[in-house]
Amino acid sequence: MTDPVLTFRKQGIFCPAADVYIDPWKRVDRALITHGHADHARSGMGHYLATESAAPVIRHRLGSVDIQTVSYGETLQIGGAKISFHPAGHVPGSAQIRVEVGGEVWVVSGDYKTEPDGVSEPFQPVKCDTFITECTFGLPVFNWAPQDQVVADINAWWATNAAAGRHSICGAYSLGKAQRILAHLNPDIGPILTHGAIEGTNAVLRAQGVNLPATMQVSAETDIKSLNGAFILAPPSALGSKWATHFKPASTAFASGWMALRGVRRRRGADRGFVMSDHADWQGLNQAIRETGAERIFVTHGYTNVFRRHLEEQGYDAGIVQTEFGGEDDAEE
Predict the structure, then answer these.
(1) Going by DSSP bridges, is the β-strand pair 104-108/216-217 parallel, antiparallel, or unpaired?
(2) What domains are there in the chain, each with its CATH number?
């Protein structure tokens, strides 16, 4: 019996034929990185390999690291494995990693979503024999509305607040979600302000050609009283903090897939919850898996037990991989 293309070690997902790990959570010599979120791109690796569009954010987060870049679809021969990166649609630069050894193909999805967002490179299904998929939102209750509808709701909420003399503070993750919202805001409503954590990421992505509206980073010198009806975009951790108290009067909102659950909306304590996720919903997960043509599926972080049972009922050979990847709430540092 031949060795599997990928194995699962305490350090992470390992390819014996290439002697590399994919998104390892412990220190290793060589790491292939699907995208720049903190739970997938960790510090301390000897050498990193990522897409050309993911590398700038990884450097921004991790500092001066030894990182090699690859174009989408470019095939590298590493040891006995052919390795290529393919768009995952999760955040700018995110990738699924295809590994082929002896004619057998495995694909590691990282995190992904199937709906184009106008900022990230759109998801592309990759044919394979075995697919390792996230299932952060692997329950039928998670069914996203079209992005156009969600951003129209956000703009309408902002316009209503501005007309009433209130600021609008929206919590969103600094890489991916924040830029999706910014790219679809209507700047005619009022000024757009950002928390420093988000503005730092904006600067990196703007330098790569991502088109975002003009924003003003909040600082100690920012004269909030002179800005009427501003839209303030901040990391979730800033909501309810001392930083947020400077914006009065204000209405607060949070953009996340978890806003589909009423109990989570209450716990967040925001005035509004917008259901927007950088992960695939139930339909997206099932669609992506079908399009791979894979017969064997491994599920990682999320509703793994439920989703595995669902896949088995559909006739797949399904298993669970225990990883240290986070869900949507864990994308921030």
Answers:
(1) unpaired
(2) 7-142+278-330 (3.60.15.10), 147-274 (3.40.50.10890)
